[in-house]
Design goal:
Distance between the termini: 60 Å
Number of helices: 26
Largest sheet: 6 strands, mixed
CATH topology of the largest domain: Hypothetical protein af1432
CATH superfamily of the largest domain: Hypothetical protein af1432
CATH architecture of the largest domain: Orthogonal Bundle
Strand content: 15-25%
Shape: globular
């Protein structure tokens, strides 16, 4: 076997150790010949040097086997997932085909491989997903739940392996992605153990000092904490035994990340966080007695310790959509300390630890979870979204949202995200009901569409056949499903209106016996200042444009196109040439930026993506090198930076007065294609004090020109004055700042 060069001595030991462990975990599910065929494929792939070590120098075969152990041991998935994981690199590099995999191992394995290849292709250039690929990643996830589970395990494995990696930037990127994408995904799917590990490791790699500070504090207080837990448990244990219940109790210290979030939320040091641990009572109950015995244990605990009624969480009667079931109560323990107690059965505990995969094992007992419906809504939202960042923001909100449950008048129960409105509920039941919704009766009282629903509300949707979806409905709804359905309905309505408007226009042409020429009409539409044809037809539908007036302008356009103007030498704006020699960017560093808590004199740079100038609303972003980049609050990247790296955002504001410093600003000017207009624009700029024209680029098409001007300007006041003057130039249609 010519694979010796591919594995180090240490990796060979780990290879055989992992192989034995995988056989032990999944041996009963593997078919005869699976291991032999898998070994052949892997050896062939390695011998042909088709697979390489990744950014962190990790051996792909070892890495996949480690991930497979997590998939089998901690999530509970077996044959198809393990084989899919181990074979996807061989298929991706062409050692074997998807058809061969399907023939040798079955459609199940081939399906997983297709999903993993799509995801790994997105990761091929970078250790993390770039924002423009985020939509494609989520679409791959939405097609097969197993691919999400495998990728969560893969990220957990990578986070475990890169602790000693020398590539700090790549490690930080992976850690940030784990926190903003994979930990929320694990939360949504009920994989709470893996979620906590991802969050803790992410904190360890991104805020090392904070992580070790909390870890040391936990170690210092461990003895006293264990003593307190034992004192709390002892009387409870005695009473539960006397009641004849079969159970075990464990105290669980909360994760470092969870404690850090509490410190930030409560704005207190480590010593100020009172609920550092939770007590878990796990009952060994037969299925038919689960609820009875859980409530019996609840009664025993609350008889002994005073409960906080506001902190009761009953996921026993109404489980979460990911299948999570438990009773949570906070009680006053010894020494006047609040203690969280979780009561559940062995079955519920396995679902809480392993999430979705464990729920599949018990399927038929409690029915399907709401996750299939959630994935369907994700798929629909992505298919109707062109903006990757917007899709990402909506997706993340859906992952972490809490749930409320509401009832129909007939008593049917529905689960919605916390903050859902009457309109969200209407679309949740059916899109036709949502489109006709005019309000609702909540607990017998008439309410508006924007009414936020609370758990336990009884909701009766009221409709009208004359009602149609409105644009402002998008500001009322909070769920992806409702937003997607509203956008679809608005697009369909607009398409019908545009078709009717075009038909009306063409009929008028026919009545007046005028030949309709599409090219002439397109030139007219651009001359009228419409960027897209649909806006033109929408204006006809809204009756802001008169059809007869359009026909008159069309005849003028036709005459203009046909006129032979030999006596006029036409000069396009595109031929404009900026002759003057322009000075290089000058400026002083005398302007002061106040960053965060009134700090001055910090090293900062102005971000090139949005080119902020004195007077703009700005914020600071702490870069990896330690310097601070200043961005405009309306920067195209602002929402991405806030959502992904919120902890690296600092406040910033301009102080003092603008004192001679000039900043480069790019303006986009659109107008009629005439060189005279460009001359007027440059003339205005040259007469402005404190403003210098650095460069100009012109592009003309169909009678319009689009110019990009770079000017040096001191502050927003001067910039706004310049933009106003440019808009007054005859023939200029639009002036905007890039």
């Amino acid at each position: 076997m010519e694979t010796d060069d591919f594995f180090t001595t240490d990796e060979k030991k780990r290879l055989f150790s992992l192989y034995r462990k995988l056989l032990q975990l999944s041996g009963e599910t593997l078919l005869k010949g699976d291991c032999r065929k898998l070994k052949t494929h892997l050896v062939n792939t390695i011998q042909n040097h088709y697979i390489r070590r990744d950014t962190f120098g990790l051996n792909p075969v070892i890495k996949d086997m480690q991930t497979a152990v997590i998939v089998a041991e901690e999530i509970g998935m077996k044959r198809a997932s393990i084989l899919g994981l181990m074979l996807h690199d061989s298929v991706r590099c062409g050692t074997c085909t998807a058809e061969e995999v399907e023939q040798n191992y079955g459609e199940d394995v081939a399906g997983i491989i297709r999903g993993l290849i799509r995801v790994n292709d997105l990761y091929s250039k970078s250790p993390t997903i770039e924002s423009e690929n985020f939509r494609n990643l989520l679409l791959s996830f939405a097609e097969d739940m197993r691919v999400i589970l495998i990728m969560i395990a893969d990220r957990v494995n990578i986070m475990r392996q890169i602790k000693d990696c020398g590539n700090d930037e790549a490690r930080r990127q992976v850690a940030n992605e784990a926190a903003y994408l994979y930990a929320p995904l694990a939360h949504k799917l009920g994989l709470y153990k893996l979620k906590s590990e991802l969050e803790d490791l992410s904190l360890k790699y991104t805020e090392k000092e904070v992580y070790y500070h909390i870890k040391e504090k936990l170690n210092e207080t461990k003895a006293s904490r264990d003593k307190y837990i034992a004192a709390f448990i002892a009387p409870v244990q005695k009473k539960l035994e006397e009641a004849g219940l079969s159970f075990h109790i464990k105290g669980r210290t909360k994760s470092i990340h969870s404690i850090y979030q509490k410190m930030k939320k409560q704005k207190c040091p480590f010593e100020g966080v009172y609920d550092l641990f939770a007590i878990r009572v796990i009952l060994d109950s037969p299925l038919e007695k689960e609820k009875l015995e859980c409530w019996q244990a609840y009664s025993i605990v609350t008889d002994m310790y005073q409960p906080n009624p506001k902190r009761l969480r009953d996921w026993l009667s109404v489980p979460k959509s990911n299948g999570y079931e438990s009773l949570h109560i906070t009680v006053m323990g010894p020494e006047g300390k609040w203690v969280e107690v979780q009561i559940r059965t062995e079955r519920m505990d396995e679902i809480a630890e392993r999430g979705l995969a464990a729920h599949w094992r018990y399927k038929g007992i409690k029915g399907e979870t709401g996750l299939d419906e959630w994935l369907t809504s994700v798929r629909e939202a992505l298919e109707n979204s062109d903006n990757g960042l917007e899709a990402m923001d909506r997706f993340k909100l859906d992952l972490y949202e809490d749930e409320v449950f509401v009832f129909t008048p007939k008593g049917d129960l529905f689960k919605l995200g916390k903050g859902s409105t009457v309109l969200d509920f209407a679309f949740h039941i059916h899109s036709k009901l949502g489109c006709k919704c005019i309000g609702a009766k909540v607990n017998g009282k008439n309410v508006q569409l924007k009414q936020i629903l609370q758990s336990g509300d009884q909701v009766e949707i009221m409709t009208s056949n004359t009602q149609t979806p409105k644009q402002d409905w998008l500001n009322i709804v909070t769920t992806s499903k409702a937003r997607t359905k509203i956008r679809q309905a608005l697009k369909e309505m607009a398409a019908r209106q545009h078709a009717f408007a075009k038909e009306t226009l063409e009929r008028k042409f026919k009545n007046r016996k005028i030949e309709y020429d599409e090219a002439t009409m397109m030139r007219l539409i651009k001359r009228l200042g419409f960027k897209v044809v649909t806006d033109f037809y929408q204006a006809i539908a809204d009756e802001t444009l008169d059809v007869n007036n359009i026909i008159d302008k069309y005849l003028e356009q036709q005459k203009r196109d046909n006129d032979v103007r030999d006596e006029i030498t036409y000069r396009s704006a595109e031929g404009y040439n900026l002759q003057q020699s322009l000075p290089e960017e000058t400026g002083s560093k005398e302007d002061v930026l106040v960053i965060d808590q009134n700090l001055k004199g910090l090293d900062f740079k102005l971000a090139r993506c949005c080119n902020p100038i004195y007077g703009d609303d700005v914020f600071g972003f702490v870069s990896v090198t330690g310097g601070i980049k200043i961005h405009r609050c309306d920067c195209p990247n602002a929402s991405d930076l806030h959502s992904r790296f919120g902890y690296r955002i600092v406040k910033a504001r301009w102080a003092g007065k603008s004192q001679g410093t000039q900043y480069p600003i790019t303006l986009r000017v659109v107008g009629h294609d005439d060189i005279g207009i460009v001359t007027n624009i440059t003339s205005i700029i040259s007469k402005e004090t404190g403003i210098t024209l650095r460069s100009i680029g012109i592009d003309s098409h169909d009678g319009l020109f689009s110019g990009t001007l770079t000017v040096m300007v001191g502050d927003t006041g001067r910039l706004e004055a310049l933009v106003k003057k440019l808009r007054t130039v005859k023939g200029v249609k639009q002036v905007s700042r890039n």
